Amino acid sequence: QPVRLSDYRVPDYLVDAVALDISLDRTATRVRSTLRLRPNPEGVAGAPLDLDGDELVATALRLDGAALDLALATPDRLTIAAPPAGPFVLEVETVIDPTANTKLMGLYRSGSAYCTQCEAEGFRRITYYLDRPDVLSVFTTRIEAERDDAPVLLGNGNPVEAGAVEGTGRHYAVWHDPHPKPSYLFAVVSGRLDALRGEFTTSEGRRVALAIWVEPGKVGQAGYALDALKRSMRWDEDAFGRAYDLDVFNVVAVSDFNMGAMENKGLNVFNDKYVLASPELATDADYAGIETVIAHEYFHNWTGNRITCRDWFQLSLKEGLTVFRDQEFSADQRSRPVKRIADVRVLRARQFAEDGGPMAHSVRPDSYSEINNFYTATIYEKGAEIIRMVRTLVGPDAFARGLQHYFDRFDGTAATVEDFLGCFAEASGRDLAPFFRWYVQAGTPRVTARTHHDAATRTLTLDLAQDTAPTPGQGEKLPFVVPLRFGLVLPDGAEQPVRTGEDDGLSDAELANDTIELATATRRIRFEDVEPGTIPSLLRDFSAPVRLVTDATDADLLTLMTHDTDAFNRWDAAQTVLSRLIIARVRDGGGDPEALRTVFAAVVRTGRHDPAFAAQVLALPSEGELAREIGRDVDPDAVHAAREAVRGAVGRMLAAEFRAVIAEGAAAGPYAPDAAGAGRRAFRNAALSLLAAGDPALGAAQARAQFDGADNMTDRVAALAVLSLIPGEAREAAFAAFYERHAAEPLVIDKWFALQASIPERSTVDRVRRLLGHPAFTLGVPNRVYALLGAFGANPTEFNRPDGAGYDLVADAVVTLDGRNPQVAARLLGAFRSWRLLEPGRRALAEAALKRIAAGPDLSADVREITSRSLG
Ligand code: ARG
Ligand code: ZN
Q: Which top-level group of life is the source organism from (predicted)?
């Protein structure tokens, strides 16, 4: 049943053109598809034509004008045993019910609109087709609908004509997309929508009409998305030489969407949380998310659409590369080091967890049962890290040439990861075959570094070793090529010049790039003429997605934290010190933050000129990260208690400094969602959070004042988050006030649900069960589900309650949801990804809950694959 990469064969038929005629109706939409087909000269001659379907009903079939027996079509397949040996025309009519489509794949209703989601395999829920990414065709789409019900008719490509359907209340529009594309990039949107319009002139002189489409009354919240779109278009021209290639670019925000957004050619469809924003309703993090996702989907126009994937095993070819591109864009728009730190936090929290758990898979997997389960942090975020490593290894110039080469050579094709990497091998003259292991081996490598300084010879010996734990189905791991950016830091912070000896030296290229290439299981490097006390700063800018274990003492780390020229490593040194401290507490109640007083006071001082960075230092490692660091028999209650104790101690130790930060911040001017303002707010809110951890009564008072006085959502919700941790009437009153104020805004109510589901108290499970019955909650909208149940699943202590009630709550929800929307159900199951790290009692309860789900009747392929891998 699983699909295997090794089974890939080219298609036996090609589609030269597709003409679709879609007559929209809420429950009976008629789709007429006319396919110009011909045998693929590279395929099997005389092979049957096998078109994919999914829950389809065919109402008419014609081959070269002659009617075919409808019995050739089953809900999931249309087979023509002996098609003509030359070109032929197949006409297929299907009738589908968008209102009944609760899976949100294919054509469905969202609010007052019709919309589609076809990636990965949704097009086959609209009509029978060769629904695979290596079949590219030119699409022309006629859309017809009731004019009153659906005044807006949007398709891919450029608009061709539009008009009334004589004698009816209906109208139509025809769209033509000149760029051949696979079916997963197809889209239509229709309904009552308002547009915020704009214009962009490309470097090639093309004038592009831009529009952000939203529910009526919400254009006032689309301005930031439009601005981000224009900046993205300009940046892709400047940074990568990529210009837009159609006369229109439409973005539509819908409130029912399984994932973040979708890059359909010329017609991106978004989860509305990545479009809508105003200072009163959206946080700084929401604005940053909009900027990133708008850029991401736009950048797909080249990396994904112009060059697409040969098969879904190559998904990271477009997703990893496009994440890399959006990360670079955001880094250029904001603070580069702070963006890097934020990205690494996400990578460690989500991808390292995935790599260390039962769902571990390589960036290019070799089999899957349900492709929708592979839109993962590994494919996306680790995929982006691999591309970042390519740039580090071949250098920026060869990287730019390689990418240019990729765009030139593979434009208009469906490519593979090998095609991509080959371009950089060619541009750099380097053999990248060993590097390719990053795509095929799963797991996070551990790199250990041991140092020895010999005073007599003034040599510093650095012994590096790498090893990667087995992952499901991959027992043996070969060494990875790990680029380690580095420097040698003198005790006073100056940079020790790097010189290595004849033996155990670095190559000229390594020296020129300040990068050690660790490509073997172990490697010794000898640095010469090194001052005593010199500290290696390794993995600067997080140059590889590895877990680095060093023999640096706490004192060394505090030196790096204060002096390292690499901002990422300054931050990471602080994280390591904090993580050691908390874990010491978990183990034996030890660990005294007092030693950190001076350096942390200094961090708070630097917050005056780099508040965003200081805020990142003040955000302690998450409970999930700490659990993974502990590695086995984890008691989440103990981790939480230790982390809170350290937060409290830091809060008391620096109370005066934090109060000053809060007081100064209160005087900052009016809200603007720019990086500088966001940094100031993040810093002040980090100070508030720690102050409250140290002194809940004082913290509650400060937070309530901020909650009441805030002129923006960032500060209001940060205050509510602080209040949410302090049991009592004040908290409940704040939640009630917040609900009252924002009841009409579902995206804001999502924050209200999520904060309540995140409370680390035993009563939370009952609160969440109660909220499942709240009138604002529905299992039908993915955002609501992720807000309440997704947040609960990410609540370390309450999901992992010692009595198993947290597991049962999520398991019940998964079972209920599976019948309605399997993708959302499968995503909720992600809560169980680290269950094997738990202490035996919880582990047994989590396993029992997974088994209970797995034993259910009629499981979707999505949920079945995750439970069976998890229980594996
Ligand atoms: N290609 C989209 C993006 O990352 C993701 C769409 C995934 N949707 C799905 N149902 N699997 O931009
Ligand atoms: Zn993407």
A: Bacteria
CA pair distance 315, 326, nearest whole angstrom: 16
d(CA 442, CA 366): 11
Query: Could you report the per-residue pLDDT of 524-537, keeping only the tens digit for each?
Result: 999 999 999 999 99
The number of beta carbons lying within 10 Å of the beta carbon of residue 294 is 28
In whole angstroms, give the CA distance from residue 26 to residue 31: 13
With CA atoms as reference, report the closest residue to 73 among 58, 60, 93.
Answer: 58
Q: Among 259, 299, 324, 372, name the best residue to mutate to test ligand 1's pocket (greatest count of ligand atoms within 8 A of Cβ).
A: 259
Mean pLDDT of 690-714: 97
Residues 6+ apart with CB under 8 A from 536: 449, 451, 460, 462, 486, 487, 488, 489, 550
Integer Cα distance of 615 and 600 in angstroms: 11
- pLDDT of residue 314 exceeding 70: yes
Question: What is the Cα–Cα distance from 473 to 179, expressed in whole angstroms?
Answer: 40
- Residue bearing the CA closest to ligand 1, atom 5: 262
pTM more than 0.95: yes
Q: For residue 641, say if its preceding peptide bond is cis, omega within 30 degrees of 0.
A: no
Which residue has its alpha carbon closest to ligand 1 atom 11? 372
Pocket test for ligand 1, best of 101, 107, 118, 119 (most atoms within 8 A of CB): 119
Q: Is the CB of 261 under 6 A from ligand 1?
A: yes
β-sheet with 77-80: strand ranges across:
49-52, 77-80, 73-74
Segment 324-349 mean pLDDT:
98
ipTM of the complex: 0.98
Q: Residue type for 866, please?
A: I
Tell me the one-letter amino acid at 772. Answer: L
- Residue for token pair 């469906």: 414
Checking DSSP bridges between strand 58-63 and strand 367-368, what pairing results, if any? unpaired
Residue nearest to atom 8 of ligand 1 (CA): 119
Beta bridge partners of 307: 303
- Identity of residue 447: V
Cβ(328) – ligand 1 distance below 6 Å = no
C-alpha–C-alpha distance, residues 846 and 62, integer Å: 53
Secondary structure, 3-state, 486-529: EEEECCCCCEECCCECCCCCCCHHHHHHCEEEECCCEEEEEEEC
Cα gap 547→352, rounded to integer Å: 9
Per-residue confidence (pLDDT) for residue 68, from 0 to 100: 98
326 lines ligand 1 (CB under 6 A): no
Instruction: Please choose, from the candidates 744, 799, 745, 737, the residue with its C-alpha nearest in 3D space to the C-alpha of residue 768.
Output: 799
CB atoms within 10 A of CB 861: 17
What does the DSSP 8-state code read for residue 356? T
Ligand 1 pocket, residue 258 CB under 6 Å: yes
The confidence score (pLDDT) of residue 668 equals 73
Stretch 552-562: mean pLDDT, rounded? 96
Q: Is the CB of 370 under 6 A from ligand 1?
A: no
**Cβ-based neighbours of 436, under 8 Å, separated by 6 or more:** 418, 421
703 close to 723: Cβ distance less than 8 angstroms:
yes
Please tell me the distance between residue 823's alpha carbon and the centre of ligand 1 in angstroms: 11
Pairing label, strands 248-254, 267-271: parallel
| Amino acid type, 108 | Y
Paired residues of 523 in beta bridges: 464
